Amino acid sequence: MPRRSSPQPTEVEMQILGILWELGPSPVREIHRRLEEAKGTSYSTTVKMLAVMLDKGLVTRDEDAQPHIYKAALTRDGAGKRLVRDLIDKVYKGSAHSLVLQALSTKRATQEERDEIRRLLDRMEGKS
Amino acid sequence: MPRRSSPQPTEVEMQILGILWELGPSPVREIHRRLEEAKGTSYSTTVKMLAVMLDKGLVTRDEDAQPHIYKAALTRDGAGKRLVRDLIDKVYKGSAHSLVLQALSTKRATQEERDEIRRLLDRMEGKS
DNA sequence: TTGCATTAGCGAATTCGTTCGCTATAATCA
DNA sequence: TGATTATAGCGAACGAATTCGCTAATGCAA
Lengths: 128, 128
What we know:
2 copies of one chain form a homodimer.
Chain A: H1 11-23, E1 26-27, H2 28-39, H3 43-56, E2 59-62, E3 69-72, H4 76-92, H5 96-106, H6 111-127
Antiparallel strand pairs in A: 1-3, 2-3
Helix pairs in contact in A: 2-3
Chain A binds a DNA duplex through residues 10-13, 27-29, 41-45, 47-49, 51-52, 66-68.
């Protein structure tokens, strides 16, 4: 039974979600292949983590399929939004602005990215 | 003795850093006041966490002062940069662009913030 | 100095995330 | 069918983060 509300996906959980976002719905075997490649953990571990995540409601699975197929229960952007909000709260006490500056200065944005961000800013102004 | 390199400030550690960034250098008593308010933990816990953080090099302290005064060893932006980089890697596999969009859509930016972001984008283009 | 309050610290207990060995069940094949 | 392999799951072990009780040291006031 899923718990009330997952506070935060943990380290490994995020790793697994990343794999699911990339591969799409997959059997344990596939997920494990990637996870093992990244950290050398055993198949049992992958199964267990998936069980934990299922309990937390971070993934769902199709038990009719054989083998069972796991799907991420959150979208990448959904999780991203939550984590960003959290980060903003934790380190910038609510100032999204500061986070944006950090993000842009951390990784050099391409011309195309800059244009899209400008477009977004314009759009935001149109609304307000 | 400080360890080589702190992997990541943990949950409570971030909370304490946040308090130090806000209050500036402070004695345990002050830090505890805020922490207790937020989570109801005991004075011992605060002292211990500070000791752990001191060991990790996340804070420094002036032992000559009485009571001892603790300071954050990282700046808010320094920690922010590290966490942002980490978030980008973990959920967006390297695309700062996506994170920026998340950040902007999560919290409505003010006119002034938008202008400053545009200025930053211009500056970035000037450089390249 | 004696007694009381504040500050500092240690070591153990607890909790949570992660890992895996071992067993059970299901599918596959010679 | 019996043997072999793949899949699923349980419960324990482990390590790291967090918590606090209890003791020691320090400062201050009667």
